TrEMBL record:
The lineage of its organism: Bacteria, Pseudomonadati, Pseudomonadota, Alphaproteobacteria, Hyphomicrobiales. The keyword Magnesium does not apply. It comes from Bradyrhizobium hipponense. This is Glycosyltransferase RgtA/B/C/D-like domain-containing protein. Keywords: Membrane, Transmembrane, Transmembrane helix. The chain crosses the membrane at residues 116-135, 142-158, 164-184, 191-206, 212-228, 240-259, 291-310, 317-335, 341-359.
Amino acid sequence: MKIAKLAFGLICLAILASNIVTMSRWSEARGVYDDICYLRQAHLFQRFGIGGLNTNALLDYDRYFEGKMKKIAFPEWGDPIRWPCHNPMPNGKIVIQYPPGTGFLLALFPEGHQVVPLYLAASLIVCGLALLGIFMARTPPSIAGAGVFGALAMYLMINPAKASYSVAPTMAVCAIAGFLTALWLTRDRRGVLLAALIGLVLGASVNFRLPNALLVAGYCIFLGILFLRSRTSATFVQGLGFAAAVLVGIAPTLIAQAVNAGSPLATTYGSADVVAPAFDFAVLGQYLRDMQFVLIVLAIALTVCLLLIGRGSVRQVALVVAGNLAVNLVFFLSHPIFTPYYVVPIAMLSLWSVLFAWLMQPEDAYEPAALRREPTSLEAIPR
């Protein structure tokens, strides 16, 4: 088994090395509107510090964004009302529509060399957790499962993660949250600190993409049902700690919305981006032909398997994942817009959670049912 672990570990590291070589050739001037807007947010943070939360077009008096627009031959570069991914607000400001998290992370690196370090850092986190999963595996099937999934997760850091700068940090957050979820729910004693840490991590992911707020849905449903069934102070405190931590994680986006749109609950997105739910068979067909469909089918299948054969508290991980999948799929599949990465976050969070729950099962869970020895009545009495 050590040889198998070593082999899968080397495969993950080889894919990481290949990704690094590929990323090193990327250009930050590929002409994608979203890229330039994220880089403008980063530029504002580097110029004004925390004041960079204010993305008003009037702050472009150093002509940074205008210069970017000229480089891609944008015809209306001098008219902020026509700038891509900027929207006019009722307070008169013209602001970036995206939450501030991706721009903040880009701002941590020197201008002109920001994208590659961001993707490299996210890839190292994903690779580290993939190697941890392989190391934790204790049987040939679990080693193979952890190894194949680790290789897949590393591959996805190029495609579809390259489609948007916000996807790379989201992928890293999903890997971390999946590990923490399994660690939290497979413990006999569940402390509020671990629940709060998961809430903080998932809340922080909203600063990269607003739809990441849906990633907490399954946790909220699980904690709500748990409290209604037990009615204990411990479950109430867990739920309260989780919710408070989510709110703390989201705080930068709420502050940015207050600064830019005039209210923490006011969106900086335009009316064209806020669409009513509607099932569109053309959009559904695009999902069916995309890699996202494979990931969702895999997440559903493994969640069902964990529900059927998982032991003890491991099944509770599957319940959280099932609730999360249901809410997110209803939202995105009824959202009449398709992109190559919309359902990737929920798919990866689900797969990481299920993988680590499987690996954290008690050692005797891997034994065939016929070989398991149930405790006698005397052995079952707690000491």
